[in-house]
Amino acid sequence: MSSFAGRMKEYSNISLDRFDRENIHARAYFLSHCHKDHMKGLKGPLLKRKLQSSRTVRLYCSFVTKELLLSNPKYSFWEDYIVPLELESPTQISLVDEASGEKEDIVVTLLPAGHCPGSVMFLFEGGQGNVLYTGDFRLAIGDASRIEYLHSGSRVKEIQSVYVDSTFYDPRFYQIPSRDVCLNGILELVRNWICQSPYHVVWLNCKAAYGYEYLFTNLGEEFKTQIHINNLAMFKKMPEILNYVTTENKTQIHACRHPKDEEFLQGNRLPCGSTASDGTPLQIISIKPSTMWFGERSKKTNVIINVFHVYLSLLFNFIYFLLTDSQLSQSQSGCSSSTRLSGSQTPELFSEETDEETSVSSEGQQSLSSSLSNHMSQNQNSPVSDTVILQPGQSNLIFTETEVHQDMMDLPDSQTSSDFDIPCTPESKIPGSQELRELYKKLASGEDLCHCKTGCSSTSQMMNHNENA
DNA sequence: GCGATCAGAT
DNA sequence: CACATCTGATCGC
Fold first, then answer.
1. What CATH superfamily classification does A14-163 receive?
2. pTM for this predicted structure
3. Which superkingdom is the protein from (predicted)?
């Protein structure tokens, strides 16, 4: 769950993905995507009243997010207060204090985040520098380098702070399979199941509101069918999705939901209630698309497939791309800067120093060697800082998820602080701190990293077959 | 009767 | 315990 309080230090009079408490008084609201844990407060009466009394405050999001939001009647009061923005189209926004008339202009650019339909990252440019808020995102290697608005000419823009989804900021999530690998695995699995008889059906156990659409469209296209879902309202203006979904239940592929869907499955029934008309019991394979391939121990789910988030090695790649390269271009272009890169050009991410003062974003000069592991430990009875500076210069990395894992760099040799074990991705291993160190050095030296194994088509790599299934 | 918060669940 | 929710109990207005 997102633990981000809603405000960024550079532009503190706007709120993102949080709309409760103090955020109500922001001069503008930004919604990165339409998942509930990023919408806290968004249907609250306090916010509703604020909208009616303000002449200037608006909610900014993508067109698709607006459509998804308004398809839920609980949010229909937003209709007149949403300003949808095109992707990759810098837009100037005036942030007005209605009491004093004081005004600040910023330019915002929406960048596709690859997390679910309509999901974006926000790039803000203004008097307090360039700031990137990623929301939840799932990019592949190389994607960031293709985003025009992260560049200025041939160089990467200097980014003051990155507010980043850190859900999988943990060595145990070093590798998770790519979307393509997952999709191909599902296609193969579904093909081998539904070809057996008309009574062999597939149930996709989709927990979140959005994010499975690429599954629906690909399955629909591959098997020339539609996928049964509970209702179509949210996709009514998205024909490219609507073509592949239906509310009629005569299909072999279902993604329907019911509060008691587990009970339905016990009785060989789908959550939509459908059974074979001639009384033949359905053979149901249940597939759970989730980032958490290990979370289901209840015998109910046959196969778990992962979706949604970026994973650690890619996160490093992304952060490296943003932070180091912009610093590099800064020094190369001779811009005024107090920054100097060390000889190796390798940030001391894994320094053993214990200088606490480097942890929080202080003004002015910062140490070249702020330690990541320091920020992971709860010494001095203080809460874990969600700000980590891992870069020479002024760039900050700020996590927006629940908590930063305590034992980030402590595996596997000195496994002391972990209260529980998370199984590794099937057939991948946990990288030790030495391996991570080397990975980071490779990233810093600009080596191209590709994690595709040759011939990695095996579905077993991504699927966790439950023995009781 | 609604919202906020929390425990418990998948 | 993590995902992204959803449901139900309890408390306060």
1. Ribonuclease Z/Hydroxyacylglutathione hydrolase-like (3.60.15.10)
2. 0.77
3. Eukaryota
